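Standup notes
- DV: blocked on the single-chain target, sequence here:
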Amino acid sequence: KMAAGMRSGFVLFLAFGISCATNENEVSSLIDDLFDDSGYQKDVIPMLKPADKTTNVNAINIAVGLSMISMDLDPAGVLSATTWLRSSWSDFRLQWDPKEYGGLDNFKIPSSEIWKPDLSIYNAADFGSGSFEDRYSLDQTNAIVYSTGKVLWIPPLPMKADCNHDHVLPSTDKNDPQGCNIKIGSWTYDGFHLNLTAFGGEEYLDLGDMSKNSPYVVTSQEGDALQTKYYPCCKEPYLSMNYRFTVQRAFAILDGKKVFDKSPEDLEKLYEQYQTTFTGNK
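- DV (later): unblocked, structure below
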């Protein structure tokens, strides 16, 4: 019986090993076909046809959203935030028939190996090493690629936004709510090349994963983040996601101790509201 059990276990182990090896071989074969054999160029925008001169009919749809994890605000009105950038698009060059690869319908790959939109923070408060721009361009967080060509990429990224880039910050009490915005869009592509859309149809910041140790909290949101702008020079539209919201200090650290500006009970209620689309009292 023991020998029979050992033989049975060996057969299962062997079958599992063959299955894993087969799966790895299918992934390797698929990546070879998509990237090496086809001459994939990650710096070329994946448009099936050239941009139309009057409409976005040939543009790539880029879904963008922003999840806030924690935030702080300095006296100059610069918001420092830890975020998850939520993004999705389609790359026709990354399509395949799962039947030809053992039923494989998706794989994960470092985002540095594929094309991704040139998103920037328009009201960024810093540039260079460690900035959103720098971390975004160098990020190697895995993207999920589906057989339809859909790409899902949600990297964790830090950012610093100038909440008062268009006006002088008034002198206010630190306990007063402060208005701020984060404006995200393509740095070079107009709306006839890159059609920006709201991730999941939500034009609000996602606060569902906000850390309860964030020094500042969001107290209200404006919504309607998706904006279109035209410049006198050009007929093409330029799209952006402009998240407008107010923040308020939750606590400060004084003499090594946490001193609350909002009561723990009020904060708990606020975090409960974050679990759904939060607008607050505007």
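- Follow-up: The two ends are 73 Å apart (CA to CA).
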